[in-house]
Amino acid sequence: MKTSVLLDHEPVADGGFLVRALLSIEGNPRSDEDRTPLNLSLVLDRSGSMWGEPLIAAREAAIRIIQRLAPEDTVSVVAYDDVVEVVAPPATGAEQNDLTQRIRDIGPGGSTNLSGGWLRGRDLVAENQREGAVNRVILLTDGQANVGMTEPGQLVGLCRSGAGTGISTTTVGFGAHFDEDLLKSMADAGQGGTYYIEEADQAAGIFAEELDGLMSLAAQNVRVAIGPGADAGFVQVHHQYPNHSEGDVLTLEVGDLYAREPRRIVMEFLLPPKAKAGIDYQVAMVTVTAHVLMDDGGVELQTVKLPIMLSPVEGGIVQPEVRREVLLVAAARAREEAMEARERGDWTGASQSLRDVVAYARSTGLEDPAVMEEIGDLEASAELFDQQTVSEADEKYMKQRVYSSDRSRRESIQRYRRGE
Questions:
Q1: For an engineered disulfide with 169, which of 70, 98, 159, 290 has Cβ 3.0 to 4.6 Å away?
Q2: Is residue 257 a contact partner of residue 219, using CB atoms and an 8 Å limit?
Q3: Of 349, 330, 328, 325, which is closest to residue 338 (Cα–Cα)?
Q4: CB atoms within 10 A of CB 89
Q5: Which ranges constitute the DSSP H helices of 202-264?
Q6: Would you say 108 and 144 are in contact if contact means Cβ atoms under 8 Å apart?
Q7: How far apart are CA 119 and CA 138, in angstroms?
Q8: How confident is the model at residue 70 (pLDDT cuts 50, 70, 90)?
Q9: Are strands 134-141 and 168-174 parallel, antiparallel or unpaired?
Q10: Could you say which DSSP state residue 304 is in?
Q11: Can you say how many angstroms the Cα of residue 297 is from the centroid of all Cα atoms in its chain?
Q12: What is the DSSP string of 328-384?
């Protein structure tokens, strides 16, 4: 595990400095021979609300996952409506030659016992659970639970309890009516990711990246504790991870770390008016802890302490990489503001929130691909608000973009773009 901090700063009106710190956490690359073994359970919702295109897309997604697994990986498949059925018990590829056909044979049913399906998948993962492997339930659903445990808090609690025993949860939502807030909360509690699949042909791209990431697992249970230094005040963290505070220390639950997907966190601090250029100041103490996968297959608890010091200069220093991260998260906040404005009936205000960030992005002069794609996506979304044609699918797309930005995940914009 590698950690680094990049700083920029600028003077503020009271004579002090606003300090931005970009923390990067990178996993050590793993060779193909060292790929992380997978122990997965695919839990597929076949309830009546999944009838039609959502169920077709869910079956295709499950098949795509199966096709990308290595022969030595373990996988099980559960299908549920009001009844939970084990379509395939845990086994490796050599024992599952007809698995894709069994998945294709899954047809629509009745009510939605989401908790029962998840619990059965967890139990199947637990049968083959081992240290150093990815032990995960992948829940493919619209999240419309109406049998068994139906309260969101109960379902989130299940995923949290699973994560506590080393079994994580990824959620995948299908169709225009899935409950994205519930699935996001379940994934956060389960230390996994959440995705949105609108059409069946999107499954290939999504799970190519998901499984490539899982196989490059570098560390688990990554936590970042942020405490202000003696000379600075803590302002905010731009990225939004699950977190809790103890005194003046904020702890972020970052979750798993993959060699293919570094984690980034932007923090802001204020140096007071007395701060002078050329003098070293204690800005913060950042502590990163994680269970790191070792080359011999073992797991080691590691702690890295990163004291953040700054000697400001007159006029400040701009770091483009820091400003890019700030911009990408600002785009997420603009999308949230636009959706809130739309709920109030303020279509003009919704569009303006997005266009304001576009203007800000252009003013920075940053022209790397991520920023340019973000600008194009914001402009396309602003046009939908101008025309008052934002659909449920568009809203879910924007919420997925917010989630990805808040977790510093780099996903292809085209992946979720409707109609592509």
A1: 159
A2: yes
A3: 349
A4: 14
A5: 203-214
A6: no
A7: 12
A8: confident
A9: parallel
A10: E
A11: 26
A12: HHHHHHHHHHHHHHHHTT-HHHHHHHHHHHHHHHHHHT--SHHHHHHHHHHHHHHHH
Q: What are the start-end ranges of the E strands in 46-167? A: 74-80, 84-91, 134-141
β-strand partners of 328: none
Identify the three-state secondary structure at position 167: coil
Q: Is 27 exposed, middle or buried (0-12, 13-18, 19+ CB in 10 A)?
A: buried
Q: What is the largest CA-CA distance in the chain?
A: 71
- Residue 339's closest CA among 353, 360, 356? 353
Pull the structure tokens for residue 7: 């700083």
Pick from 221, 227, 241: which is nearest to 302 by CA?
Answer: 221
What's the Rg (C-alpha) of the chain? Answer: 23
3-state secondary structure of 5: strand
Residue linked to tokens 């073994």: 37
pLDDT score of 400: 86
Q: Give SS3 for 14.
A: coil
Reference 193, options 256, 135, 260; nearest CA is 256
Shortest CA distance to 173 belongs to which of 143, 152, 202?
143
What are the structure tokens assigned to 182, written together?
């519930």
pTM for the full predicted model: 0.81
State both tokens at 249.
Answer: 């220390």
Using one digit for the tens of pLDDT, what is the confidence trace for 242-291?
A: 899 999 999 999 988 888 788 999 999 999 998 888 899 999 999 999 99
Q: Is the dihedral angle over the CA atoms 60, 65, 67, 73 positive or is it negative? A: negative
- 23 — phi, psi (to 5°)? -90, 130
Q: Cα(23)–Cα(3) distance, rounded to whole angstroms?
A: 7
The alpha helices in 190-319, defined as continuous H runs, are 203-214
For residue 160, with 0-12 CB atoms within 10 Å meaning exposed, 13-18 middle and 19 or more buried, which class applies? middle
CA atoms within 13 A on the CB side of 262: 14
Q: Report residue 52 as tokens.
A: 């039609």
Is the predicted pLDDT of residue 114 greater than 60, yes or no? yes
Find all residues with CB under 8 Å of 46, minimum gap 6, and list them.
55, 79, 80, 81, 106, 107, 108, 109
